[in-house]
Amino acid sequence: MLFTAECSGEQAIRQIKVYHPIINIIHWRRMQDDWIRETIEKYAYLSNKEWDLFLKLAKTIILKPKEIFFQSGEIAQKAGFLKSGILRAYEENEKGDISTSYFYYIPDHEVITLQTSFSQNIPSKHTVEAITECEILYFDKTDLQFLFNAHHNFEKLGHKVAEKHYLDGSKRISSLQTKTAKQRYQEFLTECPALVLQVPQNMIASYLGITQFTLSKIKNEM
Fold first, then answer.
1. In three state form, how does the secondary structure of 7-26 look?
2. Is the preceding omega at residue 107 within 30 degrees of 0, hence cis?
3. For residue 110, which of 82, 130, 133 has the smallest C-alpha distance?
4. Contact indicator for 129, 115 with CB cutoff of 8 Å
5. Coil, helix or strand at residue 152
6. What is the pLDDT of residues 28-52, one digit of tens each?
């Protein structure tokens, strides 16, 4: 018997037990976790034993739009991997003005962390909130530190993720300093086409460092 699109996880597992007794349930769950394996292997290779430990410590959370994953003023005590959805990191000044600093989305920016707060153990100026409904696989900081200290491959994973966030941040600063508003929007269209129709225009304008009026003007000129 083949699994159907309408088949739930529990129903599928029951089908495995009845029709495919030689397939272990653990193998089925590993198949369900293929997305996280593809994500992690962009940064580091893990053995099967390391994967089992990794998934054992993982937790899952589903956020609705506007729900918070990280709150400003708090120390980042977790890190996550985005399975679906879009989030943003933003700062709010004393006047209440909000500036979007970063978007988290698949497949290029799926690691959700506030690197400075996480690594230096200091309160973050950023809030990370869901723009759409999001499913996130996340790990508490203490569990991640255990993995980093106990296994070289996890340590390598941590270094690679930190390096990517540093390079992404450097690229963003350079773009804001050296490119025109129109060039930044064109770059956004090229690198983040999936976000254009899913993210509110005021957030895109804020991310580009321009007003919503200026963004509308640029779009009309293109």
1. CCHHHHHHHHHHHCCCCCHH
2. yes
3. 82
4. no
5. helix
6. 445 557 889 888 988 989 999 999 9
